[in-house]
Write a structure and sequence with these properties.
The complex is a heterodimer. By secondary structure, chain A is α+β, with helices and mostly antiparallel strands. In chain A, 38% of the residues lie in helices and 18% in strands. In chain A, 16% of the residues are buried. A five-stranded antiparallel beta sheet of chain B has the order 3-2-1-6-7, with no helix packed on it. A three-stranded antiparallel beta sheet of chain B has the order 8-9-10, with no helix packed on it. In chain B, β2 and β3 form a beta hairpin. The radius of gyration of chain B is 39 Å and the shape is extended. Classes of the chains: A alpha+beta, B alpha+beta. The interface between A and B is medium-sized, with 27 and 23 residues. Chain A: GO terms for molecular function: structural constituent of ribosome.
Chain lengths: 251, 353
Amino acid sequence: MESINRVIGSVRLFSTSAINNARAYRNVVNRQLKKPVEYQIGDIRNNRLWVPKEVSKYPAYPYGESRIFKRSDRGLFGGQVITTGNKVSEMGNRTRRTWLPNVISKNLWSSALNRMIKMKLTARVLRTITKEGGLDNYVTKEKEARIKELGIFGWKLRHDILKAREMSNKPLPYKFEGEYKVYYEGTYNGEEIKLIRGKREILKKLFPYVKLNSPEGYSFSTFNIAHCKKSYEELVKECESLNVDLSEVKL
Amino acid sequence: MSSLAKQGSKRYGRELSRYPHYIRKMFDQMQERAQIPAFRSEYRQVDENERYNNPRQWLVQPGDTVMITKGKFAGTLTKVVALQKETNRVFLEQSETKRVVVPKQFWQPGQTSHIIDYPLPQHPKDLKVVGTIVNDDGTEKKIAADKLVFKGEYWDEDYQKMMPYRRIKYNENIIIPWPRPDPVEDCIYSTDKNLVNERTFFPNSIIYSDSPIDLINSMRHPLMKRPYKWDKQYLTKSDIKRLVPPQPLLSDNKKAGILERQQIKENLPSKPLPETINLVGDKVSQFLNNITDPHLAKFINKNSPDYKDPKDLFIEKQKKLYDEKIKENQQLNKIKSFVEAKYKLKRTKNLHI
């Protein structure tokens, strides 16, 4: 019993709530953001409206980007920014000075993404990561204070991790049969068939047959838009009606 | 390009409709200042979107007899000569005038003095349209319409368009007809009306157009992909996809929490139990029955769902009586008509015999 007590005594107790209450995240909460505009199809497009070329991968960070100390958006800084104050000499003379947060660069393991991630982070955040039990737990916590201190880098990392977790929970679209991935099992022209290629390969096989029976100028892209969301069953039925050669795609 | 051509052209000239209203006002003032005093208009030019463009707005047309209601000439009957579209006003035969000095190069034929009296245009709201009605004994009487309403439309051959019926408000059976416009005489260059209406093109097919295939390329350079600056652009589905970022994902804990809350909400009873209703009802009735203040009791009785206003009750009673009377009269009429018909038949029969 004594030995256990000695071990417990040496470990610091977990009491993060008191520290969280003390932190106000003044720099984060003060940021003023534009209200998101609700766009609808057919609205008049302003000439000055800039439309990005690609769809954005990540959702918008609710607190926006940092206005001061832009470095903090490129790492996990826990809401810490440069602070200013005075250096006071023995004579009471005050000279302005600054304090930077204790930033270190580190390779941290993410179990959801299954790789090391190199990043810059403050020593304070590293301490909370060890307390939370890993980078993933730190980044995916739902508390409002945590989201405030994540910054844009942390917010993007959080989205990646949540997405990876979601993907890992999803069932695979194929079964393994030896080396081959079997995407679909069914009947084709009265015989059993096992498709070992994805939808895109099957659509490539189907397209020339469909093109023969359609008006001129029928492109693959328009064909793809109409067919990409169909199930394997529907695609196989269409192939059956047009008598498509699927010998290269089946097992 | 000469400056004159620049002023008139739509492409190189200054088109005022493209400027905001406050800058447009500045240009108007500049133009006004550049004029000699004789040609400065008394009234401000109206914006193009506020100008009157149909007879419903104008209320009068050239040729109408009107009564002036404002100014020095209030009460006089005159005729409308012309419409001044820039200021939403009309010129009258007899109206207030302004003395202006006209330079000699702008003199009209027959003018002998530098000073002339220029008529001031009048706003149609300061006029009353005068019409004539014929009495039973054949005499004519002039009436001035205080207010006008427009109801119904007809095709006017002289105006060559649909014109509304101009009626006097509160006496809508009295119609003041529109004056006949001056007939337009055809000049040498005008085309005959029948020639214009003649059909000369008959398409061969509904599906295939007769125009050449590369007509569009001949109209605009095929390599010019940039949309025209002043063309209106509309947001497409792909635009919105690129403009709007995806929604943030939810963690497993949060999803579980939302599910739990939803389940709790579903399990909660949507209506109060009968026991609770009885309990609350008993307590409320006990409280209401113990009220001693007569004013409060009256107020509470008024708010009960069974309460009926004595005024409404009286009206209902009157209605019932009225309905009964109508029914009685209908029956009496029936009997009366039946009897009358019977006697008429008898009379006719007798006559024949």
